[in-house]
Amino acid sequence: MSSSHTLFADHALLPTGWARDVLLKWDTRGCYTQIAPNANCPPDAMRAAGPVLPGITNLHSHAFQRAFAGLTEYRAEAADSFWSWRTLMYGFANAISPEQVEAVTTYLYGEMLAAGYTSVCEFHYLHHDPDGHPYLDDALLAQALLRAAGNTGIHMTLLPVLYQASGFGGAPLSSGQRRFGHHVDSMQRLLERLAPLCASQDARLGLAPHSLRAVTPDALKAALAMLDAIDPTAPVHIHIAEQTREVDDCVAFCGQRPVDWLVDHTDLSSRWCLVHATHMTPLEARRAAATGAIAGLCPSTEANLGDGIFDMASWTGGDGQWGIGSDSHACVNAAEELQLLEYSQRWATRQRNVLATPAHPHVAEAMTHAAVAGGAQAAGRASSGVQRGVLQHGSSQRGEPQGLGERHVGRGQGGLQVGAAADWVVLDAQHPALAGLAPADMLSGHVFGSHRTSAIAEVWTGGTQRVRAGRHHRHDADVRSFVTARAALLGAMGR
Ligand SMILES: [Zn+2]
């Protein structure tokens, strides 16, 4: 029924706001070619059964951590913290097999699609075998992730992680980190191995220096130069300032706080995503926001790990952009992340509708626009599709300016617009939280009033349906594989 590549929506959330009688057309590549409000419905068009929303990018994922969501919720030390959780996480990281990684990731990506995410940025640091030796094919686990994305239909931005040290100053990796280690040279070989694989399935390839504690200043400089030689538009993601101890260690090491150091020592720009920029001074936040970098916020994980509350007032005061990620997958639900982000700001400021804007007084709508645009930019998909899959093996796009494709990529857009991937979400207009409401109120009901029952009916990516009646089409088989893999993993760990 989609042969006409045409969808008609009574109500659709365009980048400019809600529009009526919207005709959406896409091409055989799965990109929008026309989006026309106030149109007539052609006889061969599909008709959306409810309000149509853009999909949201999940800008931060460690897929294997889905295997133990809910399994670290017990007191392991007198004062549990991020650091004691990390010790537990390393136990799972070092026991999981490639087959288990693929089963867990495939289930997770289907879960993400059903939860309103149409794109994922995978911050991939599990590289080697359980003894810490490289696999015969160094890209083995990365390929498991790519297959999971391809089989479920989620757009992927793959971010191999450069992880070299266990602390500031280049301290050697601990035994718990033995599967993570790469040097700049081996990372270059990995990126060159992955580039054609990503291009063949329209995945974007970038780089994630893990954090300032795990990558020395010299290595960071060399890695960024190496990446620029391959693709100067490739996204760069980094963990930064998640914990106050990390900030204190950074100050002790170099005399500066992490975000301040990045602003002063790198060419921070809109191709960067600062994940967990939780602990910044107001001045630090405004300086970083002015570079155009995206703040990568993971509200449910940051709550779960006791990280702290992001200073959104300083960030948006500096005109900063942001997006959301599910990180450890304690929660996989875009609407719940938005709700939790807004609530964290309400706790901190003792106000309501903190993230509403003058243009979008409905806070759910304002947050959706921000997360769609910020997420597209963080994923390296902000330029209406023209840069997707441009990273070629050993080649460079330098000297070939193409619209927004050069280093200073323009502000994120994404969403329902010509040139972007033909992704959309259809809300269930009959859901009790939504039935009988106007579209703007339906979105509010979806984010703030649907509780733990999803009000999403359908999800499409690249013009192909992935989710029907709230479930990914692979759901039943993928659940069985996930449960089997998790049981085997727990058995191997003696749990
Ligand atoms: Zn992370």
Largest sheet: 5 strands, antiparallel
Percentage of residues assigned to helices: 25-40%
Q: Do you know the CATH topology of one domain?
A: TIM Barrel
CATH class type of one domain: Alpha Beta
Average pLDDT over all residues? 91
CATH superfamily of one domain: Metal-dependent hydrolases
Bound molecules: zinc ion
What is the CA-based Rg, rounded?
21 Å
Q: What is the terminal separation in angstroms?
A: 48 Å
- Secondary structural class: alpha/beta
Please mark out the parts with pLDDT under 50 across 5 or more consecutive residues, or reply none: 384-411
* Count of separate DSSP helical elements: 14
Key structural traits:
alpha/beta; TIM Barrel; 5-stranded parallel β-sheet; 14 helices; 18 strands; 35% helix; 18% strand; binds zinc ion
Task: Please explain how this structure is put together.
The protein has 495 residues and is of the alpha/beta class. It has a domain at 56-378: TIM Barrel (Alpha-Beta Barrel). The chain contains 14 helices and 18 strands. It has a five-stranded antiparallel beta sheet, covered by helices on one side. α2 (98-114) packs across α14, α4 packs parallel to α5 and α7 (258-265) runs parallel beside α8 (282-289). The longest helix has 18 residues, at 475-492. The protein starts with 5 loop residues before the first strand and ends with a helix. It binds zinc ion.
